[in-house]
Design brief:
The chain is mostly helical. It folds into two domains: 2-103, no CATH class; 125-246, no CATH class. The protein is built from 14 helices and two strands, in the order αααααααααααββααα. It has helices at residues 2-8, 22-30, 34-37, 42-51, 59-66, 77-114, 118-122, 126-136, 142-151, 153-158, 161-167, 191-207, 209-220, 225-246; strands at residues 173-177, 180-184. The protein has a two-stranded antiparallel sheet. β1 and β2 (180-184) form a beta hairpin.
C-alpha cells in the first residue's frame, strides 16, 4: 500500500501513519487519484471524518494535503497503482472486519470469566478471583490478559514465579567458565508470552509510578531500554504471583516501604 501510494499519490501518505485505517480507505475510495482529489467537496470529507469519529484532523487540512502539487509520472503508472491499491483495499477491509469480530469475541470471553459458574464455586471461585486480580494490575488489558491465561495458565495457577520469568524470557542466562562470568539475555522463550509480558511492562511504566521509577533507575544505571523493560517485567511477575497467592487485587495506593516479592 505504502509503495503504491508513493509511486503516484504521496499526498495521501501524510494524512496518517496507519494506511489500513478505515477512514483512510474510505477517503482513497472517494479520491483514488490526485486529479479526483481536486474535485472533492469539503462537506463530503467532513461527513467522512465525522462518520469515522476522526477529530485530530479536519476537512480543510485533508483537502489542503490532497491538493498539493501532484508528481509527474509516466503514462499508465497511476492507473496500474490504482488497480493494485483497489485490490489491497478490498483485502484490508476483510482483515479489518475479521479483527473487529475477533476483538468482540475476546470481549465476550473475558466477560464470561468474570461471571460466577458452578464449577468455580465448587473450587472456591479461585479462578474467577485470579482473573479479577490480573485485570487489576497496571498494564494488563484484554489482549495481554487473554495471552497470559492461554499461554501461562499452568504457572499462574501454581503461582510459579520462576517458571513465568523463564518462559517469558525475563530471567537472564548466566554463562560461566573458570573466572569468566557473563550474564546475557535469554532468547529461548515462549514468543507470544514474551511479547505479551514486554508490552505489559511497557504500558505499566506509563501508568504506574512505581514501575516508572524502576525503569528510570535501571536506565540511570546504564541499562538499555530492553533490559530496563525486562527488569520492570520481572517485578510485575513477582508482584502478580504474590497477589495471586494472597488472593488480593492490586492496590495502586499501597505505600508500604518494602517491595512485594513472590512467596517461595
Amino acid at each position: 500500500m505504502y509503495s503504491q501510494l508513493w509511486r503516484y499519490y504521496p499526498q495521501m501518505l501524510g494524512l496518517s501513519d496507519d494506511l489500513a485505517a478505515g477512514w483512510l480507505l474510505d477517503l482513497w475510495t472517494m479520491a483514488p487519484t490526485p486529479a479526483k482529489a481536486m474535485h472533492l467537496r469539503k462537506t463530503s470529507v467532513a461527513q467522512l471524518l465525522k462518520r469515522n469519529r476522526i477529530r485530530r484532523i479536519d476537512a480543510e487540512t485533508v483537502l489542503r494535503a490532497l491538493r498539493e502539487p501532484a508528481i509527474n509520472v509516466a503514462d499508465g503508472v497511476a492507473e496500474a497503482a490504482t488497480i493494485h491499491i483497489g485490490s489491497l483495499v478490498t483485502r484490508l477491509r476483510v482483515v479489518s472486519r475479521e479483527l473487529h469480530d475477533a476483538m468482540r469475541k475476546l470481549d465476550e470471553l473475558c466477560a464470561c470469566l468474570d461471571e460466577p459458574s458452578p464449577t468455580a464455586a465448587e473450587h472456591g471461585g479461585s479462578g474467577r478471583q485470579d482473573v479479577k486480580i490480573l485485570k487489576s494490575m497496571p498494564g494488563i488489558g484484554k489482549i495481554i490478559l487473554a495471552i497470559l491465561l492461554a499461554e501461562a495458565s499452568g504457572p499462574l495457577s501454581r503461582r510459579d514465579y520462576q517458571a513465568l520469568r523463564t518462559l517469558s524470557g525475563v530471567a537472564p542466562v548466566t554463562k560461566q567458565s573458570g573466572k569468566s562470568r557473563m550474564v546475557v539475555r535469554r532468547y529461548a522463550a515462549h514468543v507470544r508470552l514474551r511479547d505479551a509480558v514486554y508490552h505489559w511492562a511497557r504500558v505499566a511504566i506509563q501508568h504506574d509510578p512505581r514501575s516508572h521509577s524502576r525503569y528510570v533507575a535501571l536506565r540511570q544505571r546504564g541499562h538499555s531500554h530492553g533490559r530496563a523493560i525486562r527488569g520492570v517485567a520481572d517485578r510485575l511477575l513477582a508482584l502478580a504471583c504474590t497477589l495471586l497467592q494472597r488472593q488480593t487485587v492490586f492496590d495502586r495506593d499501597f505505600s508500604r516501604g518494602e517491595e512485594l516479592t513472590a512467596v517461595p
